[in-house]
Amino acid sequence: MEIRLAKDKDCAEIARLHRATIRHINSKDYPKKIIEAWSGRTNAKRFRDSLSKCKRWVAVENGKIAGFVDHGRSDELWGLYVHRDYIGKGLGSKLLKIAEDSLKKQGAKTIKIESTITARPFYEKHGYKFVKKGLHPVFGDKKNGLFVDTYIMNKNLLKGSRLG
């Protein structure tokens, strides 16, 4: 499996993976109405438009994207999605490590994530601590009244170092 920086041409496949993960994995933790709205807002244009504002990696096997991770320009992990056939096989951990190392190089001392209910145990296993509950607007605004229940979590990158 190759893990590389995402390219513009990857955005349609990333969007398909994002939608499928929401529909097949997150659906066990969220109501159908939320899943439909959340997965329905995902498209290649959104991923293409955000590419210049983040760092995004894709894991590719046999020419197909098996997962991706991205983070912003400061200290926030934006997301990590793994195809359902690769869950539990270590791919998410590899992608997370790449993003954490990148954030460290950018100077982040703490990483923040707004985790789904589904992903919370994964992040806890990797040293992230619960901070508070959150509500993420499904369509990117607060007017429509649809929100995804989330957990705000963080990880101290200085732990075990002389500074932390």
Secondary-structure map:
Elements: E1 2-5, H1 11-24, H2 32-40, H3 44-50, E2 55-61, E3 64-71, E4 76-82, H4 91-105, E5 110-116, H5 120-125, E6 129-137, E7 147-156
Parallel strand pairs: 4-5
Antiparallel strand pairs: 1-2, 2-3, 3-4, 5-7, 6-7
Helix pairs in contact: 1-2, 1-3
Describe this structure as you would to a colleague.
The structure is a single chain. A seven-stranded mixed beta sheet has the order 1-2-3-4-5-7-6, sandwiched between helices. The chain has 164 residues and is an alpha+beta fold. It is globular, with a radius of gyration of 15 Å. It has a single domain, classed as Aminopeptidase (3-Layer(aba) Sandwich), CATH 3.40.630.30. It is built from five helices and seven strands.
Number of strands: 7
- Name the helicity range: 25-40%
Topology as a string of helices (H) and strands (E): EHHHEEEHEHEE
- Tally of separate domains: 1
CATH class: Alpha Beta
CATH architecture: 3-Layer(aba) Sandwich
Give the CATH superfamily: Gcn5-related N-acetyltransferase (GNAT)
Radius of gyration: 15 Å
- The structure class reads alpha+beta
- N-end to C-end Cα span: 34 Å
Quick synopsis:
This protein is α+β, with helices and mostly antiparallel strands and 164 residues long.
Search tags:
single chain, 164 residues, alpha+beta, Aminopeptidase, 7 strands, 31% helix, globular
